[in-house]
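Standup notes, structure subgroup. Blocker cleared on the 2-oxoglutaric acid input:
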Amino acid sequence: MQSFATETADPEVIVEELLRGAGAVRLTGLFTPDEIAEARAIIMAESDAATEKVTHFQGAAAEDGTLGLQRRVWNLLAKGEVFSRMAAHPVLMRVLRRFLGSEFIMGSIAANRILPGGPGQEPHVDYPYWDFHSPETHPVGLNGSFPMNAQVSIILDPFTEESGATAYLPGSQRELRYPTEADGFFERCERMLGDPGDTVLFFGAVWHCAMPNRSNHDRNAVLTQYLPKWVKPMEDMPAALPPDLVANASPDLRQLLGLNYPYPEVLDAAAAGNTEGRA
Ligand SMILES: O=C(O)CCC(=O)C(=O)O
Ligand SMILES: [Fe+2]
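Run returned:
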């Protein structure tokens, strides 16, 4: 995987690598050790409490309902100001504006903590492609020639082969389909290795998955989903945040929350009374 230090993060080069190259790049030097430690402490505390919700995401909880060895912490913006800084980091904003369009939004910001002994995942593609098991539910001809997703994984613990660093198959984003047995994903995959503070940016159409944690330490990452402005976000973030956080959001954060492009709206003139000038 190509690495870019903050000052050498040329959006054009990175966009080319995401679309037509490996599909993933590493960015270094975006976050301070203090920011990483603060984020990790919040996630560890939140995921020690038995508050997590079982969702369709694999491994959220054990079958008997007890906390599993893969734990999600959702809605991170509500859990510490550090996560707003992470989501709207200027280098990420610059690169993602080029990749997803200048008015791109965020669809989710959550943590994935895999404890020692915790499971990995099946190789997959991310929202809005996650149910591409059924391509017929998507528009005909949809392909990976332009991106409808970018994922950012901020690494909070050493990501090694042993600890379950995310696996991915370079170049697979060009196909936009799910891998089959014949693709030999686990034989051919590479890993998103990194040190705490390193950040991996990838196109979510690349086949990837968390891997089992066979180390003796937790493996935490902040996973943020970014989308073009017109893709329906996965989480309703404004609804899940304290009103004052939304009201005081910076211009970049307002954009990420989707507040600059607020469709669907009621555009019936009689009902809304303010629709003049709309197409
Ligand atoms: O935590 C990881 O290594 C990857 C998680 C992932 O790809 C997902 O949850 O969609
Ligand atoms: Fe994923």
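Discussed briefly. The chain has one domain: 2-272.
Next: hand off to the docking folks.
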